[in-house]
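Ticket closed. Logging final result for Ser/Thr phosphatase family protein.
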Amino acid sequence: MRLFAIGDLHLSGHPPKKPMEIFGTRWKNHWQRIQEDWKKRVGEEDTVLIAGDTSWAMRLREAQEDLNEIRALPGKKIIIRGNHDYWWESAGKLNRLDAANRMHYLYGTTVYTADRQFAVCGTHGWICPGDNHYREETDAKPYRRELLRVERTLQEAVALHCRCTILLLHYPPVYDLTKPSGFTDLLEKYHVPLCIFGHLHGLQPHTVFPRIYNHTLLHLVSADYRECKLLEIKLDEKGVPYESDC
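Final structure:
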């Protein structure tokens, strides 16, 4: 079994109701390019992590066309909620609806791969204090709530005794690309070797991330940053994750 990751698919039906190429040439035919890479590299026994902002749909019924496109692709999918996933009703409901489709939705919960190589802790994350968009009056409460969710999932992961724990977020665990937060404190406290996230756009591909932050490998998997190619996550002989595009 192999593990892959991608984020920020930003689907909007077929043909797309909101073509993403209005945000730059790296988005041109982005979903077609992602699917081509996915089908070439992912097998049915593999797992793909999707780091939020999956569909522009406002309601679950409107998101079904986009979700069907993902269901049709090979492998098991583990999905978290992004800040634009307004269609997301609850992880419990989504998991009941998709139980037979090998689609699993995480929101403050933890799952593990069948071979117990990876424990995946997933939640939304939040804007961190210090960020230009952070407002104490509106962001302090959800920020603290997300920290509690992350810590609970990491505690669950410890009990699973998998070779590697991955924290899957939508928002980055750092602000201003390099500055610490409560999320980086938890990554250090629980010795998490890998954090995967999306949300950030407009960066030159492969320039800022991956980077090591307090012994945690940080990977940005937004579709435009990844040039519409999935990241394959591998472990060395000691169980330490490393970057791979092979």
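The chain has a mean pLDDT of 94. No further action required.
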